[in-house]
Amino acid sequence: MSWACVACLGLLAAVSGDPCLIISEINADNPRLDTTEFVELYHTGGQRASLDGYTLVFYNGNGNVAYKVLDLKGHSTDDRGFFLVGSVDMLPKPAILLPPNTVQNGPDAVVLYHTSAARYGERMNVTSLGMVDAVVYMTRRTGGAEFLAETLTPGEPAFVEDEAALEGDESIERCLLSEDRWGFQVSSPSPGQRNNCTPPAAPATIPVITELKLGAGLVDGFVELTEAPGAGPLALVVLDGRTDRVSVSVDVDAGASRNGLISVSVAKDYMKGDESGAVAVYGGRASDFPAGSQLSHIQPLDAFVFAGPGNKPSANLTETLIPGREPYQLSNSLREGGFYLSRCGVATWARDPGVFWEAPQTPAQPNQCPWPKICPHSNVTPGGTDSPSHLPPWGNSDFLINELNTDTPGAAEDGEYIELWHPSGRRVSLQGVWILLFSAHNNRPYREISLSGHFTTSKGYFLLGSDRLVPAPSLRLPPNTIQNGPDAVALYRSPYGPPSAAHRGIPTLGLLDAVVYRQRGSDREAQELSKALTPGQLPLLEDPEVLAGDEALSRCRGLYPYDLSAFSVAPTTPLRENSCPRPPPAPEGVVIGEVASGHWTNHSQQRAFVELHGPPATDLRGLVLSVFDQEHSGTAITLPLTGSVDQDGFYVVGNVTGADQTLPEGAVFPARGAVVLCYDLFSVCRAGTALTNSSLRDVLVFSENQQLLSSLSAARGRQVLPAARSVKDGPVSLSRCSCCEVRSPSSWTSSSATPRGTNLCPSAAFSSHIDLCLGPLSSDWQEPLEDCSGLIQGRKVVEVADFLERRCHCGISALYLQGANFSCVSGWLRVLGDIQALSDHQKALIVQTSSVKPSPAQGDACSAPTTDRYTSTASALGLQIGLIVAVLLLLSLGAALFTYFYRRRRPQDYCTMELSEHAEGLSDL
What we know:
This protein is an alpha+beta fold. The strands form nine sheets. It has a six-stranded mixed sheet with strand order 6-5-2-1-10-11, with no helix packed on it. It has a six-stranded mixed sheet with strand order 27-26-23-22-31-32. It has a five-stranded mixed sheet with strand order 4-3-7-8-9, with helices on one face. It is elongated, with a radius of gyration of 40 Å.
């Protein structure tokens, strides 16, 4: 029989705190018909207690409103502290009966309030006002309890009731994890009885201490641990809490196992209850840990540290053996037979004295633990205010290393710290998260710290550091613990034990984030750590000469894990927003000039690259180049630019000869996607969904994916696609042929790749004649048009170029039609003139495409006299103005001639004629 049998939970009586009412067990889903549902309340005093003033509310996760409200006024628990609400058919009979199928299966919540019952009613919105306890649950099929969890149990996810965990029925049972921290397990229903809380099964490779006896110097002590056949030879080491030295070491005899448990006796002089000390289990032999030797920095497989009355063990001993935990405090009353301590908490993390409580000794038998008499860790203050408004989910983001201070002024080194942050910006559990501190001298962790049982602050921060640090860290370390470099700090999610236990060498499984750092001149010493944790990047330098006082490595340029370019040397800001240096001004005049992907042809020399154009010697710092793949969400490549534009105005990023900056190792340039030149925070540029006109410097979309096009909403026009047929032989690229118009697909064409050279663009030297007549009501257009003049005014030559490209697939764009005239005749579009090309090869393809003979109807329509002829919008307007002016001149000339001849042919009136020389002269004139 294994030690991991059913055990009742308990807590040492010395733990302070008044008894309280808790939700102890919920059974919301029964096999077949839901006729034995129940909710069990328990008063931790273990005796009869009045329930006046309490209200039990059931919430539906679909809508987050109450569907059942029970006022508990007039009721009380039984003599053992239990109170049942449940179905009419269940046994024992509940105090409040419910119809079958009342308690919903999830996503839902059950909340216990202690305030005026008048404020709660059915159909009300979820609230934490007056809450004293809550359980949020769901099933594997449903999910969707995020809002309830954020409001009622912030930092803790909804519990999953796994109906496949047991044969038959199961329930959600509250169990004490460690000290005053509670959790839930799926177990067999036990209404009105102690919960069946089962400690986690010990792995076959890691022994676990299950029982201890501290002999008080009068009798021998003993340590009981689980059998671990895969662990190899084991040594039990007892250490002195005052000197941090080995008192005695004993080889563990695996052959003495009984029921999967091994007992090791320790002489009475070494495990006393009136002194501080520790017990640790190591892999190896007792001879590796001789008496009198210093505390080993090898991480133990399990450990227990205890503090005698007024006799605290050293911080070094505590943080080495049980990092992040507190020693077990022994009581002042020394018993004649010593102290008997049993593992009773069901926490999954190891090396935590908080899971032990005083209990009867049961060698080679399951532990017998007393019933708990403390209240759960309170997340919400009773009678407090409502939780803040709902925040959007943070997707798949996980914990990040936010700030790192490894070297503080002075010899004490008592201001070191590591700050973590969760991108949700709220209180989050660190269950299953580990921090490993690596030394570059042997590429092994010198500290392995479990953060299980801890929570971030309400803003998502978690601080561990020196015990004299201000503000006080949640997890204290002895001074000078974090080495100055070359070293590394790595963050892991490893719910089943230390990351190093499942991986030889430098573990990478479960890696969340990592920072490799160095001192001056020591970057080469951390090559193995960099290769495993931050591949392709140089270690960071926490340069003490940058700032006058203390400094830290702060995350300033993005939320991408294990990305060292996101960090800057900045002032220390523990548990506050990082104080980052201001970015340089945005470089002006830099645009994307040419793009090539290795997928666009099968040519042996085809390599991916992005060529930028800009003013010579322009510093590109602050610009981020992002490459999006239409087949995957997010970016395929995100690269902060570091150099300057050369004297010829070029800057090349890629895997081609002479590139100024290479693509990240292992990066794949997509066949369809987009290239974005961005000036903003690294995280914003990487997301690509919140780019403004000021942050989006240029973009080229070579995809028809509508989701990608809509996410890059600042891009004008439509996409441009590479055409391999445009090049007879050799690499293919997309080249900019219009120098000054950014973010426009009309500026681009397919051509031969010319990195760091003049782009190949359509030329009149390879032009051919084009004569097309296109009917708006035919299948030539994607959408029928009633009047082709609307086409000319709106879509212009782009629609005609798209029409030709769909038939040619040879790279035709609007750039090719600069020499063509467009006219509208009776609703038909006439295209007449020259179409340019890149080469004779492309010219032949275009001639073959554009030589389609018009049908008789088309010929009749397009052969009529043409009006409204356009070469462009400007030329069309000029032609109209010219025609109007000519007509006005002709009218004026006609009027003048008419007046002249009219006056010449009209006879003179001699009766009124005056004989005056002046009048006669005027008449002649």
